[in-house]
Specification:
- The chain has about 575 residues and is of the alpha/beta class.
- It contains 22 helices and 13 strands.
- Strands 6, 7, 8, 9, 10, 11, 12 and 13 form an eight-stranded mixed β-sheet that branches. It has a three-stranded parallel β-sheet with strand order 2-1-3, with helices on both faces. Strands 4-5 form a two-stranded parallel ribbon.
- It is elongated.
C-alpha cells in the first residue's frame, strides 16, 4: 500500500480509462450538459477508505473541501490507517474529473473485523448488515482452501508452491476476519453494478491489497460468483518490487520466468493477468541523483565568475518579488541568482536571528539574509555543490562579511550537519526541487529549528502527474505534488502551514520583452546570450529537452512558498 510506483501505475490506468470513456462519449454524442448524467463513468473502489467515509469522499469530489481536509478527516474517522500522501495526485485527478470519475469507499470499518474475532461471526454479520455493508442473504463466512493457503502464505512468508510446503492452521480463526472484508467489497461492487449504467458501459478500477485479490481469490472470487459474465471482461494486475527474488533488469529471460514460477506458481496457477515489476527508489538511487545534482552545479560554480546581465537579473528578481533594496544588497552578484521566488518576503528575518539557507547556491539569498540578521545575527548557507560553496565563500570574503556573521558549508539537506534547535529561521529557494526525499528534508528543518522557529521554503511543484513516456528533467521528476506539501508538513509537526502560490507561474513575460523571448525558466541565471553556452544549463533549456518547448509549464507546474512554524516549547507556551 502507498508505494509511489504502484500509485503511479494506478493513476495512469485511471487516466487511460477516463480518456476511453471520453472517446465513447464523443462517439455517442453525449458530450453536452443535458446528457451529463448518462455519460459513461469510471468508478474507483478503494480499500483505503472504510464505508463510513463515503459521504466525505462524495463531498470532496463535489469540491466542498480540498485534499488536505480529506486527509484530516481520514485520520479522524477512517479505520484503515494508510498513508494517503502518495495518493494525492490520484485523488485530485478524480476530483478534477468528477463528472466522469467516481470515488467509492471499499471496505467495511475495521471494528467489524475485530468483532468477528471477539464476538463471533454471527454478531459481526448482523451488525454489518444493519448498516447495509453486507448482503442480507449472507449467513456465514466461508472461504476456499486455496484462498486460505494464499492468505496464510502472505502472513508467514511460506512459498505455497514449494514441494512439500503445507500451510499452518494457526491463522484459521483469523481467516473469517479477512473474509468479511472481501464480502463487503464484493457487495459494494455488486451495488454499483446495479445502480450505474444499465448498458454496462461504466468501468471499474478496484484498488486492494494482494491478500484480497491474488490468484483471483477473495474479492474477485466473490464478485465472479454473482457475475460470471465479468470473468472474461476483467483484468487483474499484480505489483512486485524488483528485488533479489525477481529482477526486472535481468537479461536472462529463462531465469526471469523461472523466478516468476517460483513465486507465483507454475503455468496454470493463474495468479493474475499482468505482472507489474518495478524498481523502487532506494538510497543508492537517491545518492546517484544527489551526485548528478552536485556535478551539474559544480560546473555552474566553476563558471560563476563570468559576468552576466544585471539588467535582466533585476527584471527577473523584481518579477519574483524582490525589492529594489534587496537587489541592491545582492549587488553585482545578482546575475548569479538561481532561485524560484523570494523567501525573504515571508521569512521576515529580524536583527540578531540565526538563519539557515538550505541550498544556498552562489550565495545571493544568504547575502540578503545576512543584511537582515545584522552584525549580531548569524547566517549559514548549506549546499551540496562544493564549487558553489567555494564561490559563495569567496564572494562573502570580498564583501567583508565572511567569518563575521555568514558562512557556507557543504552538506546534504536530508542529513544536515547541525545540532538540534540551532536556528530561528530556515529559508530555501529552489533547492527542495532536487531533494529525492522531501519528507527527510522537511524533518531536518524541523529538527534544526528552535521551538517557535519558522521556515519559508520556495520550491517548484507539479499540479498534475507528468505525462508518461516523456523525457522530463530530473528536477521535474522529483517535484513534489502541490497538494502533498501541507499534509506532509503537518504530519511532521509543523503548525500554521500555508502554501502560498500567489506568484506561481513557471513561464512569464518580463517587462519590455517580446513574447517569443520572454519565457524565463525559474532558476536560469541572467547572463548575456553569448555567455549562455559557456554556462552549464541545469534546467529545461538545454537541447536535450527541446521537445518540452511546446508544453504549457504553467499548467503542469507551480512555484510556491511553504510557510510554517515549529511549535513553541511547553514552557514558552505556558508564559
Amino acid at each position: 500500500h502507498s508505494v509511489p510506483e504502484q500509485v503511479a501505475l494506478q493513476t495512469a490506468i485511471l487516466q487511460s480509462q477516463q480518456h476511453a470513456t471520453q472517446q465513447d462519449m464523443t462517439t455517442n454524442n453525449t458530450h453536452d450538459n443535458q446528457n451529463m448524467d448518462s455519460r459513461s463513468k469510471v468508478h474507483v473502489v478503494l480499500e483505503h477508505f472504510s464505508l463510513d467515509m463515503q459521504t466525505d469522499l462524495q463531498a470532496f469530489q463535489e469540491g466542498k473541501f480540498d485534499v488536505t481536509e480529506l486527509i484530516r478527516r481520514y485520520k479522524a474517522v477512517g479505520t484503515e490507517n494508510h498513508d494517503l500522501l502518495p495518493y494525492i495526485p490520484l485523488l485530485q485527478y478524480a476530483q478534477q474529473n468528477s463528472f466522469q470519475v467516481k470515488l467509492h469507499a471499499g471496505f467495511l470499518p475495521r471494528p467489524y473485523a475485530r468483532m468477528v474475532m471477539r464476538e463471533g461471526v454471527e454478531t459481526a454479520l448482523q451488525a454489518a448488515k444493519a448498516k447495509q455493508y453486507l448482503p442480507e442473504q449472507l449467513t456465514d463466512l466461508k472461504g476456499t482452501e486455496s484462498h486460505y493457503r494464499i492468505f496464510e502464505s502472505l502472513l508467514t512468508g511460506r512459498n505455497p508452491f514449494e514441494e512439500g510446503s503445507e500451510p499452518t492452521n494457526q491463522f484459521r480463526k483469523l481467516f473469517p476476519a479477512q473474509l468479511i472484508k472481501d464480502e463487503s467489497m464484493a457487495h459494494t461492487l455488486h451495488q454499483l453494478f446495479l445502480e450505474n449504467e444499465p448498458e454496462g458501459k461504466d468501468k471499474y478500477l478496484v484498488l486492494a491489497g494482494r491478500g484480497h485479490m491474488l490468484h483471483f481469490s477473495g474479492v474477485p472470487e466473490k464478485v465472479f460468483q454473482h457475475h460470471p459474465e465479468l470473468v472474461n471482461d476483467s483484468v487483474l494486475i499484480i505489483a512486485h518490487e524488483s528485488d533479489g527474488t525477481l529482477d526486472a533488469s535481468s537479461s536472462d529471460e529463462p531465469a526471469f520466468w523461472k523466478s516468476i514460477e517460483k513465486i507465483y506458481g507454475p503455468k496454470g496457477a493463474n495468479p493474475g493477468d499482468y505482472l507489474f515489476v518495478y524498481d523502487a527508489q532506494h538510497e543508492d538511487e537517491a545518492d546517484a541523483i544527489k551526485a548528478e545534482t552536485a556535478q551539474a552545479y559544480n560546473k555552474v560554480g566553476e563558471t560563476a565568475h563570468l559576468k552576466g546581465n544585471l539588467k535582466l537579473a533585476k527584471q527577473v528578481m523584481g518579477y519574483l518579488g524582490y525589492t529594489d533594496e534587496e537587489f541592491d544588497i545582492a549587488g553585482e552578484d545578482a546575475y548569479n541568482y538561481q532561485g524560484v521566488g523570494n523567501p525573504h518576503s515571508f521569512a521576515k528575518i529580524q536583527n540578531g536571528e540565526s538563519v539557515l539557507d538550505v541550498g544556498s547556491g552562489l550565495g545571493i539569498d544568504s547575502f540578503i539574509a545576512a543584511h537582515y540578521a545584522g552584525p549580531t545575527g548569524q547566517v549559514t548557507g548549506l549546499d551540496l555543490s562544493k564549487m558553489e560553496v567555494k564561490h559563495a565563500t569567496e564572494r562573502a570574503q570580498s564583501r567583508d562579511i565572511a567569518d563575521q556573521n555568514l558562512s557556507f558549508v557543504v552538506g546534504d539537506m536530508e542529513q544536515m550537519p547541525f545540532e538540534d534547535e540551532s536556528f530561528d529561521v530556515v529559508i530555501s529557494n529552489g533547492a527542495f526541487c532536487l531533494a529525492p526525499n522531501k519528507q527527510k528534508a522537511f524533518e531536518e528543518i524541523y529538527r534544526t529549528l528552535k521551538p517557535g522557529g519558522r521556515m519559508a521554503i520556495y520550491t517548484s511543484t507539479v499540479k498534475v502527474p507528468l505525462e508518461a513516456g516523456v523525457n522530463w528533467p530530473v528536477c521535474m521528476r522529483m517535484f513534489i505534488h502541490h497538494s502533498e506539501l501541507q499534509p506532509l508538513c503537518e504530519k511532521i509537526g509543523f503548525q500554521n502551514v500555508t502554501i502560498d502560490d500567489s506568484n506561481s507561474l513557471m513561464q512569464y513575460n518580463l517587462p519590455g520583452e517580446d513574447e517569443g523571448d520572454a519565457e524565463q525558466p525559474s532558476g536560469e541565471n541572467g547572463q548575456d546570450p553569448k555567455e549562455k553556452d559557456e554556462r552549464n544549463r541545469v534546467h529545461v533549456g538545454s537541447a536535450e529537452f527541446k521537445h518540452l518547448q511546446d508544453y504549457d509549464m504553467n499548467a503542469i507546474c507551480a512555484r510556491v512558498c511553504v510557510i510554517a512554524t515549529k511549535p513553541k516549547s511547553p514552557a514558552a507556551q505556558a508564559t
